[in-house]
Amino acid sequence: QVQLVESGGASVQPGGSLRLSCAASHLTVGNNCMSWFRQPPGKEREGVAAISRNGISYYADSVKGRFTISRDNAESTVYLQMSSLKPEDTAVYFCAAATLCGGGVPSPAEMVAWGQGTQVTVSS
User: How much is the CA Rg of the chain, to the nearest whole Å?
Assistant: First the structure.
């Protein structure tokens, strides 16, 4: 059974940085489109970043230049490096897997596996 486990969420001040990790079991991260989503309080889940099978990265406009997605195939782990964090980045962050990225960050409906989420709070 595929399992995705996120970690690294925390409370940080605006302008700070965090790195989220997503450890995958029974799934080869290099053979899937691995994505990060977030769900702010009271809002719908939205795509943040994705990395395709061949290593191409995609980002939502709201995080371009601030967030970086990467993966370690040997460790079966996907990362989301977040910098210059803003209060509007506050959300529960989810790791998810899909077969293909389709040229961008997939929609939540396309994902076939999800992690349980990790809370990121950006506040002074």
Answer: 13
**Nearest to residue 93, comparing CAs of 68, 115, 77?**
115
Amino acid at 102: G
Q: How many CB atoms lie within 10 A of CB 12?
A: 18
Q: How far apart are the first and last CA of the chain?
A: 40
d(CA 68, CA 38): 15
* pLDDT of res. 55: 95
Contact 120, 19 (CB under 8 A): no
Beta pairing, strands 77-82 & 67-72: antiparallel
Give the side-chain half-sphere CA count within 13 A for 80.
Answer: 34
Q: How confident is the model at residue 75 (pLDDT cuts 50, 70, 90)?
A: very high
Q: Are 78 and 71 in contact (CB under 8 A)?
A: yes
Task: Report d(CA 79, CA 27) in Å as an integer.
Answer: 15
pLDDT of 85 reads: 98
